[in-house]
Structure formats: structure tokens, C-alpha cells
Amino acid sequence: MSKIKNKVVWLTGASSGIGEELAYQLAAKGAKLIISARRREELERVKSNCQSDTVEILTIDLEDNFSLTQKAKEAVTFFGDIDILVNNGGISQRDTILNTSLDVDRRLMEVNYFGSITLSKQLLPRMVERKSGHHVVVTSTVGIINTPYRSGYGASKHALHGFYDALRAEHHKDNIRVTIVLPGYIKTNISYNALVGDGSKQNRMDPGQESGMAPKKCAKLIIRAIEVKKNEAYIGGLKEKMGIYLKRFWPSAAAKAVRKLRVT
Ligand SMILES: NC(=O)c1ccc[n+]([C@@H]2O[C@H](COP(=O)([O-])OP(=O)(O)OC[C@H]3O[C@@H](n4cnc5c(N)ncnc54)[C@H](OP(=O)(O)O)[C@@H]3O)[C@@H](O)[C@H]2O)c1
């Protein structure tokens, strides 16, 4: 029997891309699923494609931090306590440090970092009480090795590593597990939705994402990592995985390689 069956899973960023595929596969495995993002109509579409009668919609805006406490209270009204929180919702960036306004840096931190940790912090006390819970957070390869044009985005993903490494260490004794997922290039709309320096959307597909891994495969690998409660899962091409190992074991070579990258 799947380890996901009958588990209560709250998934953010479920209206497109990786999250949409995760929704389909988690539903197919018998999860009691709460799907979240801002766009209700897209969540309705995903829900109807799930072909499961245990999928509920809870709209959230990760940028609206004050609303998230109430949303976490609402989340437990559907199926009871959350077993697995999948913090997947996020936005990226495509611009230089010089061009990027501080407002954009703040927005990236608010959505990617504070949005995710707020949901985790809301659910944590009850998980500690129950001595059970699993926090999954989708960061990025750039959460280990950042590249040009992603200063604020990479910073928000680095911050997630710091927070969730501490959560894992503090609450292992409470049977609470943390899985950090680091995708490389995945073929989704992330680069369309990425913010440029003035806060508008880039509105185009990057070559990296265009030739990236299919979200279906990515979601399958994420679910496998959740099922075996992996600490970290690197999901992507050889180049991205090599980048992570280079940064960890030979940081000066990584710095040189990143300087030469042709990214936009
Ligand atoms: N694709 C890649 O190459 C790649 C690589 C590394 C990491 N990632 C990470 O993977 C995760 C999923 O991204 P994706 O590739 O699937 O991109 P995507 O197709 O653009 O999906 C992003 C998701 O996040 C949601 N979202 C964005 N801003 C939000 C907000 N303020 N409040 C609530 N939800 C919000 C979007 O829903 P709404 O617009 O409906 O709110 C959407 O469901 C992100 O954390 C991203 O950083 C992606």
C-alpha cells in the first residue's frame, strides 16, 4: 500500500507546473488532498482532473502573510490534522542586482520564504503534540549554488535551507521529518512568471526550462522522496546535480564556473 494513502496532504502552488502534477499523482495515490494557490479557477480545473472525491480547494496568497494564520486554521477543517505539508508555491526572478528594486527582493522573500515558513510554523505545534508530521519544501538548485539574474530568488531559496535544516534538527525527536527538494530545470511556466527588476513578469520561456525535465517526471521523483522521507532530493539534469556537488566540495571551482554561465 502506498505510504501516501489516506494521508492528509496540504499542497501549495497546485494551480500549475510541478504542483499541478503533484496534485494528480498524490490524488491517484489516495491522499486526502488540500490544494492551494491564488487562482481559484485553475484550482477548480486541477481538482476536476484529479478524479478523486478527497480533494479540497483552499485559495491562499503567500504574499499576504497576515492571512496565512487563518488559512492554516481553515486547512484542518477539511480532513483534520495535516500529515504532510508540501510547500511548493513560489515565484522566480530574471534580472541583475543593479536592475532589481528592493521591493522585488522583498516580494521574493515574502512569497518563497516567509509564505512557506509561516505555514510550517502554524502547523508545527499540533505536529509536535501528535508526534507526527512531514514538511516538504521545494527550493531549487540555486538554493545551493546561485547563478546570475536570480539574486533575490536564490537568496530566498538559500534561506529556506537554513530554516528547514534547523526544523529537521530540532524536531527529529518528535518524529517530524523534513524533505528539501531541489529541482533543476523543469519545463513549467516559472520563467514566464519570473519577476524582472521593476516587478513585472518576464513573460517568456527560457531555454533552460524549455529543454527541462517534464513536470510529470519531477512530481514522481518528489513523491518517491516523500515516501522514503529523504532529507534532500536533487531532481534535474546532470549539469544541475554536478553544480551542487561542485559547490559543496570545490567552491572556488564552482564560483569560476558560475561566472562563465550564459544565463538570462
Ligand atoms: N520550473 C523550474 O525549473 C524550477 C526549478 C527549481 C525550483 N522550482 C520551484 O518549483 C516550485 C513550483 O514552480 P513551477 O516550476 O511549478 O512554476 P509555476 O508553474 O509558475 O507554478 C508556481 C505556482 O506557485 C503559485 N504561486 C505563485 N505566487 C503565489 C502566491 N503569491 N501565493 C500563492 N501561490 C503562489 C502559482 O499559483 P497562482 O499563480 O495561482 O497563485 C503556481 O501554482 C517553485 O517554488 C519554484 O521556485 C522550479
Structure, briefly:
50% of the residues lie in helices and 13% in strands. It is an alpha/beta fold and 264 residues long.
Task: Walk me through what this model shows.
With 264 residues, this protein is an alpha/beta fold. It has one domain (8-260): 3-Layer(aba) Sandwich (Rossmann fold), CATH 3.40.50.720. 50% of the residues lie in helices and 13% in strands. The protein contains 10 helices and 7 strands. It has helices at 17-28, 40-50, 65-79, 102-130, 151-171, 190-193, 207-210, 215-227, 238-249, 251-260, and strands spanning 8-12, 32-36, 55-57, 84-87, 133-138, 176-183, 232-235. It has a 7-stranded parallel β-sheet with strand order 3-2-1-4-5-6-7, sandwiched between helices. Helix 1 links the parallel strand 1 and strand 2. Helix 3 runs parallel beside helix 4 and helix 9 (238-249) crosses helix 10 (251-260). It is globular, with a radius of gyration of 18 Å. It starts with 7 loop residues before the first strand and ends with a helix. The structure holds NADP nicotinamide-adenine-dinucleotide phosphate.
